[in-house]
Amino acid sequence: MSTARSNTCQCDCVRTSVGSARGSGHAVDDTGPNGWGVDKARPVDEIDPTSEGRRRNMRAIRRTDTRPERALRSALHRAGYRFRKDLLIRTGSGVKARPDIVFTKQRVAVFVDGCFWHGCPEHGGSPRKNVNYWGPKLQRNVERDRAQDASLRADGWTVVRVWEHELESEAITKVRGAGRIRTD
């Protein structure tokens, strides 16, 4: 089925809101006018990471306000904690960090890390498709996280990292364990 403005690719995969297809390991090539060109199914491992379709897909991935982040913030707020969210911190060594949750007076920075993006030891496995692109990108994320942690600690911050798969109760315990945090 390859009509303009179709909702499926040739293999009848469901098109998502960002123009990619879910299902049979294919992606939709939206190169026509207004992104609604003829659907051309091609294997996912041949996708150019700089293509317009991939660019739209990557833009749709949230940097902030992810579901696990919102859940933790909600639980902390219900427990009486007050904090800032997504606050830019410039360290003395010039490294910039943007923790998801920040207790400014107590100098505690909380990061809620996605398993895929930050290399979770339990769920973060290596990418199976387009390894030449994703492998180095994910490695840079892990290296950036380590550099931010070291720089924040050097400036007197306590850093807490929570994985997206952790239960809220475990995450709250980690945050409380960072010490010096109290409810207002």
TrEMBL record:
Keyword list, A-Z: DNA damage, DNA repair, Endonuclease, Hydrolase, Nuclease
Region (Disordered): 22-53
Swiss-Prot/TrEMBL GO biological process terms: mismatch repair
Highest taxon, organism lineage: Bacteria
Pfam families on file: Vsr
GO terms for MF: endonuclease activity; hydrolase activity
Record-linked SUPFAM superfamilies: Restriction endonuclease-like (SSF52980)
DNA repair recorded as keyword: yes
Residue ranges, compositional bias (Basic and acidic residues): 39-53
Family: Belongs to the Vsr family.
Name of the protein in question: Very short patch repair endonuclease
Taxonomy of the source species: Bacteria, Bacillati, Actinomycetota, Actinomycetes, Micrococcales
